[in-house]
């Protein structure tokens, strides 16, 4: 069954197959580790995970590389403001990001690559661009000359007249109406971290890191490059320009970008001050997987509106699905086979996860639900264990009540029940606790 995926390069759904053998070489743009990622960012990372799991359901192996941007305008400013070294500042947020990845049951990348660990690869690439006269030097850095790359704008469909030939932009992020020569390397400034380079001491611009690291680990062309929709311009556009101008080969065969999470009709963004993190939603009593479920209620190329009501509805749905997985009977083999076909067909139609989810709700057998969980990643296979221990927790609380009321016999009977289930009770100053009997 072909996997049809929308390719932002052609703006069409195309049949996806890896170029070589059965391994998909997949590069996903990762976070800038300068703050807690917000749930708008996390929607993109769950989308990457959905893509990755769908490749795997189609029988492919996936080699996924994700970068961690730990040197750019934002991280440098953040470190300065907090009085920490860049490394100290970014490693804190890097750890928190990986913690969120785990909490959301996002499969880990084969490698998370830090920009600061790949400065030499970036210098080498910039030198190549310099030699080919696609890059030039000014008083504050090395710039990429967009007029020297005739396909500039092919991903974001910039018209030639929108390009400001000869004008330069130094900042790492800028708007579409500012399509100008961009910084590959920024010369040393007082109080900024810097590295020695043949063209002058300094630090990389943002865009070069993804080209250097993706090519190093995956080669050209990548099978697929993903990220959030706001990365199409300038980030992905600049990655294509640098990579193809340097090596004269196609950079990536597919580009797949996920839409925004919106709130009250506006994009959720740190710059707009309307963000929530995973910690914020946990503080309100939700679990990270409630948010994971919420992301499956919209197609990845549609904006998804976040509200506490929609998150609450997702929590209820997820709990019901857990119950369904727990109580459903074993599946009939024929029914299961049909389900697998339909479920895969929905995903292979440009990741139609809302449709796939609707099939799960119609399913009757346990095996269908567990098969679907390879994609959903809601831990539905673990529900039984969780429910059993939840039952024991309730017994433990009941025993506490009995002891408080000095009903020792009843309390001991409950203790025996718990013991039979394979647990012992530890009485601690903080209260009684269950511990697995060894
Ligand atoms: Zn990137």
TrEMBL record:
Annotated ranges, domain tRNA synthetases class I catalytic: 16-314
GO biological process: cysteinyl-tRNA aminoacylation
InterPro entries assigned to the protein according to its UniProt record, in alphabetical order: Cys-tRNA-ligase (IPR015803), Cys-tRNA/MSH_ligase (IPR024909), CysS_C (IPR056411), Rossmann-like_a/b/a_fold (IPR014729), tRNA-synt_1_cat_dom (IPR032678), tRNAsynth_Ia_anticodon-bd (IPR009080)
UniProt GO molecular function: ATP binding; cysteine-tRNA ligase activity; zinc ion binding
Location(s), subcellular: Cytoplasm
Chief subcellular location: cytoplasm
Subunit structure: Monomer.
Protein's name according to its UniProt entry: Cysteine--tRNA ligase
Lineage of the species this protein comes from: Bacteria, Candidatus Giovannoniibacteriota
């Amino acid at each position: 069954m072909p996997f049809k995926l929308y390719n932002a390069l052609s703006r069409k759904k195309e049949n996806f197959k890896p170029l070589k053998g059965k391994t998909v070489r997949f590069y996903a743009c990762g976070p800038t580790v300068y703050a807690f990622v917000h749930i708008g960012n996390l929607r993109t990372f769950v989308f990457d995970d959905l893509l990755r799991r769908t490749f795997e359901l189609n029988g492919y192996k996936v080699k996924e590389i994700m970068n961690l941007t730990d040197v750019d305008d934002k991280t440098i400013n953040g470190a300065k403001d907090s009085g920490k070294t860049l490394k100290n500042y970014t490693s804190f947020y890097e750890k928190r990001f990986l913690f969120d990845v785990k909490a959301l049951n996002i499969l880990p990348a084969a490698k998370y690559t830090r920009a600061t660990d790949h400065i030499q690869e970036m210098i080498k690439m910039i030198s190549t661009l310099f030699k080919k006269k696609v890059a030039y030097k000014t008083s504050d850095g090395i710039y990429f000359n967009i007029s020297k790359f005739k396909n500039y704008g092919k991903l974001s469909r910039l018209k030639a007249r929108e390009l400001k030939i000869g004008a330069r932009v130094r900042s790492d992020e800028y708007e579409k109406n500012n399509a100008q020569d961009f910084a590959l390397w920024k010369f040393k400034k007082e109080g900024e971290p810097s590295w020695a380079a043949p063209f002058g001491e300094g630090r990389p611009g943002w865009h070069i890191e993804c080209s250097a690291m993706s090519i190093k680990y995956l080669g050209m062309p990548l099978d697929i490059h993903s990220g959030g929709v706001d990365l199409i311009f300038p980030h992905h556009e600049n990655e294509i320009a640098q990579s193809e101008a340097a090596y004269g080969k196609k950079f990536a065969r597919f580009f797949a970008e996920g839409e925004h999470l919106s709130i009250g009709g506006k994009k959720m963004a740190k710059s707009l001050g309307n963000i929530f993190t995973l910690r914020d939603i946990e503080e309100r009593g939700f679990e990270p997987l409630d948010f994971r479920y919420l992301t499956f209620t919209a197609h990845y190329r549609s904006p998804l509106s976040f509200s506490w009501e929609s998150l609450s509805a997702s929590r209820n749905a997820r709990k019901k699905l857990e119950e369904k997985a727990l109580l459903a009977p074993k599946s009939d083999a024929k029914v299961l086979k049909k389900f697998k076909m339909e479920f895969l067909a929905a995903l292979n139609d440009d990741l139609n996860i809302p449709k796939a989810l609707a099939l799960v709700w119609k399913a009757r057998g346990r095996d269908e639900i567990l098969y679907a969980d390879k994609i959903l990643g809601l831990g539905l296979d673990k529900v039984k264990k969780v429910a059993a221990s939840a039952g024991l927790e309730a017994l433990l609380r009941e025993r506490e009540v009995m002891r408080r009321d000095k009903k020792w016999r009843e309390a001991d009977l409950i203790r025996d029940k718990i013991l039979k289930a394979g647990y012992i009770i530890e009485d601690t100053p903080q209260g009684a606790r269950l511990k697995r009997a060894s």
